[in-house]
Amino acid sequence: MGQHDAAFNPITFTVWFEHVAGMNTRLSQAMEQLMQVRPQLTDDDVWGLYQSYVADVDPLAMHRIGDELQRVTSTLAKAAASTGEDAGQFGSQLETLVTDLQALNDTLVTPAVIKAIEGSARMRSSTQALESEVKTSQSEVQRLQSELTRVRDESLHDSLTQVLNRKGFDQRLADMLRQLPQADHSHGLIMFDIDYFKKVNDTHGHVMGDRVLQAVGEVLKSCVPSTSVFSVARYGGEEFAILMPDSTQDEAVKLAELVRTRIKAMKIRDRRTQAVVLTITLSGGVALMQVDDDAQSLTSRADAALYQSKQGGRDRITCV
Fold first, then answer.
1. What is the pTM of this model?
2. Under CATH, which number does the domain 166-319 receive?
3. Which residues contact 155 (CB under 8 A, 6 or more apart)?
4. Which of 218, 239, 223 lies closest to 163 in space, CA to CA?
């Protein structure tokens, strides 16, 4: 990094970390090609690399684009259908006119009128084909929109534990803080950490560690009613969180204790012998939103409460 002109900031560190770690092949290839032309990367170069190969596409923006495309195709389909109806009515009027003229005198039915009827029929057929094509495209847009929604949801969930991942947590937390709670209520955040999780991995291996994480995720989900607005997330590693919009301190502490006691009662068994392999505990910290809180300060206070639980002997809940 010191050999280049780009400033030392989080964007620069991120780009160089992913390059040096070998975790982003497309980024590394682009950087190497760029450095052949410009040996010293500038801030603009690094920002361009970050935007193209590191930054996530905003799933909400993509969803809005899908909605807008769906609206446009829907409008086009209605317009095509309306045009087809108008063409059909016009064709019927011409046919009625020809019939009336023939009743008076066949010689009055000029070739021009016949051509107009034929042209109307062609226009109606063409419009019907357009309407069919638009409807087909509309179905494809709906399919793509459903796929986009599925991909967006997957991008916000942790594949191992099937709860929200850190990105999903950050998004739900931001949504929660934008809402005003009811009188005598606030927004709550509970942070959990599995006690001595490193020992689980060291003693039983990472496969067992993954089973423990999955089990904890299941317990947390079981403690939160499916009809509630609360959200369960894996904050990172062995740390989990529950977001509690529009709740009270008593409700938050009660839920945290419910999770703690259920985790303590959980028994991880050997799948072959059904013998109990291990039991675990977790510590928790509860924080309720204050007037000047933002996402960072609320999370920091919940994390501080969690740290107090760890320092106080683990397997306990602390509220700040």
1. 0.59
2. 3.30.70.270
3. 56, 59, 167
4. 218
